[in-house]
């Protein structure tokens, strides 16, 4: 069985990473070649020449107009993956074609569909509109994680770890002390975990970026859209400030949208995309620099912990004992959703493979 | 068992949303099936087992523990501040 949910959309890159240079990223064990056509459209295809498997992202492979030329023997492919030229002969074999991926550029991400092409439905891609909204300022990055993607899901669904792993940055005692409310929409594949702190210490991450010096009300509302997108709606306001209005306006609070795209690279490694979008100090470069450095530091604290945890888990026999408590309510729900999606993707793959064998 | 739902108000708006709250002042959890029936447990493992098994006796005969439901786009959170809608009010913050 595949270790990942197939027939799903995954973030392969930030839009700004993909241009007129050949770019590659491994998603769910598949090496994906990404580039932009001269018209600016993103093309996504297998990063292996069908001739002798040379990586098309590797020099001296190159982009010529809207064609990719393999740097080994010159096999040439269009944006649709079809081979248009081979060396030394006029006839291009009919089967000379790269597998292409359904791709969608949205909300500053490049999403690719991993699975059966005819099931790719762009309306299923979860949204994070803050990231390219002029009403927000965003800082972002991506850190490689030498751990299975499920460990990052566990980590992000239970923010009580902020108190211990990220003390002095985003963690304060109240995060671990405050009860959570969890909701799960099975059909949509969404887990929501809500933690509303009425009177909390303001951690440096928010004190220095907002200028608040006293205690705060701090809301953390997590939306995890399995398998790839994680949204943390963070609301910060001085204690005593009025709450949001019924129409959705909330003029007395600061809002930070923390977005993660959790993309499996291999069974034991993950692309940890992170972004922080804020609706205040939009033009303040110092605030941007501070949030970028501070959040990256927090992410790297997670990376160090999860890399170590991966080594431990990989060295243990399957089914080693764990203990779950109340703080794990959302994490357990996410695990179940991922298990269901993984099984569904594997069943579909198995059915297709059986059908292929039957007709071959 | 109880048929009423507790504060804070529901966040997800789908047709089949499970909901779990931390019972105030205790270490216990109370969960609501999407049909409105609830159950209290000492921990999340026991509670999820109950919730996921519960639809077996739903009166409308709807099968399922959710896993057979077709995947659909997620509903948007109604309470989310500053949702990027066209009718969003000005972002000017009051002192």
Helix content of chain B: 10-25%
Instruction: Give a short account of the largest sheet of chain B.
Output: 3 strands, antiparallel
Which CATH C-level class of the largest domain in chain A is it? Alpha Beta
Strand content of chain B: 5-15%
Shape of chain B: globular
Tags for this model:
heterodimer; A: alpha+beta; Rieske Iron-sulfur Protein; Naphthalene 1,2-dioxygenase Alpha Subunit, Chain A, domain 1; 6 helices; B: 95 residues; alpha+beta; three-stranded antiparallel β-sheet; disordered N terminus; disordered C terminus; Cholesterol_7-desaturase (chain A); metal-binding (chain A); 2Fe-2S (chain A); iron (chain A)
Q: What would you note in describing this structure?
A:
Chain A has 360 residues and is an alpha+beta fold. Chain A has 2 domains: 8-123, 3-layer Sandwich (Rieske Iron-sulfur Protein), CATH 2.102.10; 129-316 and 324-341, Alpha-Beta Complex (Naphthalene 1,2-dioxygenase Alpha Subunit, Chain A, domain 1), CATH 3.90.380. Chain A contains 6 helices and 17 strands. Chain A has helices at 149-157, 162-165, 173-177, 204-210, 285-315, 329-359; strands spanning 8-14, 23-27, 30-36, 42-46, 62-64, 67-69, 76-78, 83-85, 103-106, 109-114, 137-145, 181-185, 190-200, 216-225, 229-238, 254-266, 269-278. The two termini of chain A are 23 Å apart. Chain B is α+β, with helices and mostly antiparallel strands and 95 residues long. Residues 1-7, 61-71 and 75-95 of chain B have low confidence and may be disordered. Chains A and B meet through strand 12, strand 13, strand 14 and helix 6 of A and strand 1 and helix 1 of B. Strand 12 (181-185) of chain A pairs antiparallel with strand 1 of chain B.
């Amino acid at each position: 069985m595949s270790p990942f949910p197939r027939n799903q959309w995954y973030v392969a890159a930030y839009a700004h990473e993909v241009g007129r240079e050949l770019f590659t990223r491994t998603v769910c064990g598949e090496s994906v070649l990404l580039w932009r056509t001269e018209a600016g459209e993103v093309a996504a295809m297998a990063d292996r020449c069908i001739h002798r498997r040379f990586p098309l992202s590797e020099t001296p492979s190159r982009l010529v107009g809207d064609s990719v030329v393999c740097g080994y023997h010159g096999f040439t492919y269009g944006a649709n993956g079809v081979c248009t030229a081979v060396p030394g002969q006029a006839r291009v074999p009919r089967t000379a074609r790269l597998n292409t991926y359904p791709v969608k550029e949205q909300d500053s991400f490049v999403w690719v569909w991993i699975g059966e092409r005819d099931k790719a439905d762009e309306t299923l891609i979860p949204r994070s509109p803050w990231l390219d909204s002029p009403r927000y300022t965003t800082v972002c990055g991506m850190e490689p994680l030498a751990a299975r993607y499920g460990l990052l899901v566990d980590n992000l669904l239970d923010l009580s770890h902020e108190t211990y792993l990220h003390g002095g940055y985003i963690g304060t005692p109240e995060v671990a002390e405050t009860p959570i409310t969890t909701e799960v929409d099975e059909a949509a594949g969404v887990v929501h975990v809500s933690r509303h702190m009425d009177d909390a210490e303001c951690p440096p991450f928010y004190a220095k970026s907002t200028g608040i010096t006293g205690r705060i009300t701090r809301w953390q509302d997590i939306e995890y859209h399995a398998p790839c997108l994680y949204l943390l709606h963070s609301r910060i306001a001085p204690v005593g400030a009025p709450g949001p209005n019924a129409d959705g306006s909330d003029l007395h609070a600061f809002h930070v949208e923390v977005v993660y795209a959790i993309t499996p690279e291999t069974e034991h490694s993950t692309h940890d995309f992170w972004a922080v979008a804020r609706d205040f100090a939009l033009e303040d470069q110092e605030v941007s620099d501070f949030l970028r450095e501070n959040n990256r530091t927090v992410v790297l604290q997670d990376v160090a912990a999860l890399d170590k945890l991966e080594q431990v888990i990989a060295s243990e026999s399957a089914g080693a004992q764990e203990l779950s408590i109340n703080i794990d309510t959302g994490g357990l729900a996410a695990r179940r959703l991922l298990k269901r999606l993984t099984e569904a993707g594997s069943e579909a793959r198995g059915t297709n493979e059986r059908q292929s064998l039957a007709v071959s | 068992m109880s048929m009423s739902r507790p504060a804070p108000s529901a966040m997800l708006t789908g047709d089949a949303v499970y909901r779990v709250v931390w019972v105030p002042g205790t270490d216990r959890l109370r969960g609501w099936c999407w049909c409105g029936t609830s159950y209290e447990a000492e921990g999340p493992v026991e509670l999820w087992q109950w919730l996921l098994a519960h639809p077996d006796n739903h009166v409308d005969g709807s099968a399922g523990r959710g896993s057979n439901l077709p995947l659909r786009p997620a509903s948007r959170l109604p309470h989310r501040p500053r949702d990027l809608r066209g009718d969003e009010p000005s972002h000017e913050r009051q002192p």
